[in-house]
Design brief:
566 residues; alpha+beta; three-stranded antiparallel beta sheet; 16 strands
Length: 566
Amino acid sequence: TVAGVLIRDGRLPLGLLIKNTKLSAREVKQALVVLIQHGVVTHAASKEGAGGRMVTYYSVNTRVVLRQQRLGLYLALVEERMGKEGVAVFRTVMENGIMSIGTVKERLGSSEWPQAAQIKLDAATSKLVRERFIVAVAPGDTVTRIDKTMEAEAVELDKLAVLPTAKELLTIRRMLNDRAEQEYSNTSVVGIKRVAEEEADGHVSKVVVGPDGRTLVVANGTNGTDGTNGNESQDTVDQTQCFRVYYDRLDVFLRNQQLVNYFADKYNAGAGAIVKAMLRITESRTKTCRDRRSEVLSVAQVINQLPQDAPLADAVDTGSDMFFQDLAASATSGNGTAKGGGGNGALTPAKRTELAFALLEVVRADASGIVVKVDDRGGGQYQLNFDRAASALRDQSLDTLVHEKFGSLHARIVRVLRDKQKLDEKSVATAAMMPIAACRERLHDLALAGFIDSYEIARTVDRNPSRMFYLWYINPQKQTRAAMRYIFKSMTNVFARLDKELAARAPLVAKTKRADVAADQSLLTDSEKNELAALSAAQTRLEVANVRLDGMLLAVHDISPEHASF
């Protein structure tokens, strides 16, 4: 109720929030504590009235609310990378909002686990913190960035003896922006401590978990499974430090998966494997989707990151360039591997390297410009342009959306305008290969929906509409807003249909929750079982549709560096 009122009415103080929700002050305060704990609600204090009375305003962080649809994807991602111990810690922190690691261990009951399991849990927790899946909580995290900027600006203005000029105000805002960028670029990890464990004889030893899950003791200068020296200190997480889930960091991995699918669908699985290897190398240094470029990568780094079973020898269509097809044919003809079979068979290291070079050239020559070659030293130095990656993924999702909403001819017009920029009606019809009357009708359909815009050029001083040139073009901001309206409307329809399906079978759902029916399914008739199967199928289809819409929202808005949060 409290969150719904804040979403509907916007930013409110406590008094108006109590009045609009028609709840008691105690209930509203308790709800606010829970919502702030989970990052759903933010607060900020401001002075009001002649006496300078401080009033606290509350508002909803809609980004956190919308990300609740991705929790399943987040959990699957964490389990894939951190294992069962990591996902257990991550889920506990996610369910409770903000929690210290000591409290997480108490909830999990890890004190009763075997020593090897406790070591695995500590290692997974340290990895979660180091890779910023969870981050330490600061007091200012519950205040919005805009409010923090306004407060810092007010502090700087108070230092001036007179009212600031426009130039001084611009200088202050640039300074605050630079300060925020420096804080964002800080690579230090809060919550990690380095400790060394000493034995009775004074030698330093530490316990590590081997790649096969066995517990190993590294002591007296010996090397661990990762090649580290035994006399080095061990990373441990501060048990009293509170952490929260860092959703912006997790969106990086979802974006990377979309990029891999983009190249795999456009070319082949080998091109997707090359891009995936490049993204794997840069993931540790990519903080959020705000980062516009990756670090520079060498060809040797990319090849070393490629898995042995990467299907590099699959055929790929590169248009008139037949070099790669000939190379793939020669790679598969002499080693017994079927062409296009999806594996590398007995590829020699030299042939594997040659195929990797060819695939790198294929993805570099892609029109999207995502993979950029910055230097020719050492076989080539490459970089990923995340700005262009966000644009390519957004355009792909927008094309799909326009095609589903209007049809293939409307989608063709959008692609023509994206490639040719500003065009008049006749030029659009010529490029799209359709009659002018049909093109005019479709242009107005797209303009009314907000996917394209028009630019007026007056031929006379009076600006008479009948004597003007009208150029059609793509307005990215307006197009993004139109797409988001459609996505949110579709999500609303999905939820409404799900509620309708559940309401229509509410008595049957209530019956299945009875203890006797849960213990003995034979108490249900055949018709009731069929109804439950139909309900389950409908729920599955609606959930899949919702995940697909959320993927569109991620590509259209969330991964853009301009819209990504700190």
